[in-house]
Predict the structure.
Amino acid sequence: MGLSGVAWGIYSLRGRGTSDPLLATAGNFVLAVPMSLVVSIIFIGQFNTNLYGFTLAVASGALTSGLGYALWYRVLPQIGATQGAIVQLAVPVIAGFGGLLFAAEPFTARFVIASILILGGVAVAIIAKAKRA
């Protein structure tokens, strides 16, 4: 998770100044294809898929994520790197709500407490930054 956070930070900083977020995101996806192919070849014996699963993977991976990343690149210049880093911390809560709504994940006290702590931390950071400005 730590490496993922560092990678996302680099990704965000690199995309902050792009003039065409959709093109930049498409280019990033193209750059990821060789690594994806290598990993796929290594694990090909463990694949168990069908057309429905493959279609869902493409829809959620390429289309939905791609548009989300392009939107992130579009919004980031307006909110700045620090604000973007703070807001980005809310993503696990958003993903958790997606799991509740679309994957029938259980609604637990643990989820509620974790969400309150995360969103509370994000709110404190945003308020503190606003007071300094």
Q: What stands out?
A: The chain has a mean pLDDT of 85.
